[in-house]
From TrEMBL:
GO molecular function, one term: monooxygenase activity
Name of this chain's protein: Flavoprotein involved in K+ transport
Coiled-coil annotated spans: none
Keyword Chaperone carried by entry: no
Organism name: Paraburkholderia xenovorans (strain LB400)
Residues annotated as transmembrane: none
Keyword list, A-Z: Oxidoreductase
Pfam families per the UniProt record, alphabetical: Pyr_redox_3 (PF13738)
InterPro entries membership: Auxin_biosynth/cation_transpt, CHP04046_FMN-dependent, FAD/NAD-bd_sf
Length: 429
């Protein structure tokens, strides 16, 4: 569904302008409509395009379906503990889009947002100019793919893709494939290639991992019972530092399982440490493989140990647990790999994205380009963010927690509108 039924006028003034037509922007629209607040959602591409255009063919959720809880539209299928595949996710989103029926302008890029002296926001877009009393930025934080400069030195015969452009193993040329990075995308893409029988060279980063199932249940179910997903960022041990964390790698593929890079290595995948450089026809890697694998396993075991403690504290009858023991260890740290001798025909960069809010003219950003806010409310009057990782809780950037954040922001919008109306009435009197 790329054309919402409720189209908006091309220009004008709105009480609220929402920038971004993903699940965050649509969730804000849902609550704005409930509150009777006029608004416009502006989307640079097409509604929920990221799920449609930036996911590989075998993509599936890594959290169980029951956590799909968009506002007024919870998962209604018959497999709550399963993991929706790409086409099922799109169908779920299409249903949500139809329900919200947001006032939407697609293919509309925001070029500049600036608050005027009178407090009204002036918005310049490729489809006209608008004004709004308040603005919600719901465009996410993953805008510009990160590709290192060493990529420029690779020969033209090497096909290079960023993770968002990867689709399937068959679309790549014959030969080995190097995957750089082991966050959720890197680990799952490496698995996808490995299962297809491709030779994979994997540059392992510092991402942690977790178990899929432990002591008879999905780890997500245990953590939900432990109220981990309700923990606000200010109560997390890392505080706002948790926003910089890489997501744990695990998969929902084929009903869900662990991703164990050691097991892949035992089956023939070549693992290296962090990719540092390309010189004299050789890749150079940092000697970090053993440490990165050990750190990922430590996190895996630490999460399981917290579940053990919860089970013991509450006297829950559950199957026995245990500690993960490595099934493979690197005999030595290999720090170089000859490009020509490796047979590498393609490289997939899975090292993340950087935010780009250059169009937003507001003094709310830190040195790394991230906005300062408290639960999405910025220090600038009438400016909000929603849909960012750990905006408030673990689920803030996911289907599971966006409803709570969107409702909170709309409540703040409504209160701000009341304050302004009261002030205007007092001045008029």
């Amino acid at each position: 569904m790329s054309n919402p039924t409720h189209h908006a006028r091309a220009e004008g003034h709105y009480s609220v302008l929402v920038i971004g037509g993903g699940q965050a922007g649509l969730s804000v629209s849902y609550y704005l409509k409930q509150a009777g607040i006029d608004h416009l959602v502006v989307e640079k591409n097409t509604v929920t395009h990221t799920w449609r255009e930036q996911r590989w063919d075998a993509f599936c959720l890594v959290t169980p379906n029951w956590q799909c809880a968009l506002p007024g539209y919870p998962y209604r299928g018959d497999d709550p503990h399963g993991f929706m595949k790409k086409d099922e996710i799109i169908a779920y989103l299409d249903g949500f889009i139809a329900q919200v029926d947001a006032p939407m302008m697609e293919h509309t890029e925001v070029k500049r947002v600036k608050q005027r002296d009178d407090g009204v926001y002036a918005i310049t877009t490729t489809q006209g100019d608008f004004t709004a009393d308040q603005v919600v930025v719901a465009s996410g934080g993953y805008h510009t793919p990160i590709v290192p400069r060493l990529a420029e030195r690779l020969p033209a015969r090497i096909v290079q893709l960023q993770s968002s452009a990867y689709r399937n193993p068959q679309a790549l040329p014959e030969g080995a494939v190097m995957v750089v990075g082991t966050g959720q995308s890197g680990a799952q893409i490496a698995e996808d290639l490995h299962l297809a029988g491709r030779k994979v060279v994997l540059a392992v980063g510092e991402a942690p991992r977790c178990a899929r199932f432990y002591r008879g249940r999905d780890v997500v179910d245990w953590l939900a019972d432990m109220q981990y997903y309700d923990m606000p960022v200010e109560k997390h041990p890392l505080r706002e530092g948790v926003r910089d964390n890489t997501n744990h790698y695990v998969t929902g593929r084929d009903g869900g399982r662990d991703i164990d890079l050691r097991k892949f290595a035992a089956e023939g995948m070549e693992l290296y440490g962090r990719l540092d450089d390309l010189r004299d026809g050789q890749f150079h890697f940092a000697p970090t493989l053993a440490a990165n694998l050990d750190a990922a396993d430590d996190t895996y075991n630490r999460i399981n140990a917290s579940i053990d403690g919860f089970i013991a504290k509450h006297g829950i009858d559950a199957p026995a647990g245990g500690v993960y023991e490595p099934v493979w260890r690197p005999q030595q740290e290999r720090t170089t790999l000859d490009l020509d001798g490796s047979g590498i025909a393609a490289i997939i960069w899975c090292i993340g994205f950087t935010p780009d809010f250059s169009w937003l003219d507001a003094p709310v950003f830190n040195g790394r380009g991230y906005p300062a806010h408290t639960r999405g409310i910025t220090p600038i009057d009438g400016l909000y963010f929603v849909g960012l990782p750990w905006l408030h809780t673990w689920g803030s950037g996911r289907f599971s927690g966006i409803a709570r954040d969107a409702e909170f922001i709309v409540d703040a919008i409504r209160e701000k509108a009341r304050e302004r109306a009261s002030l205007a009435a007092a001045v008029a009197a």
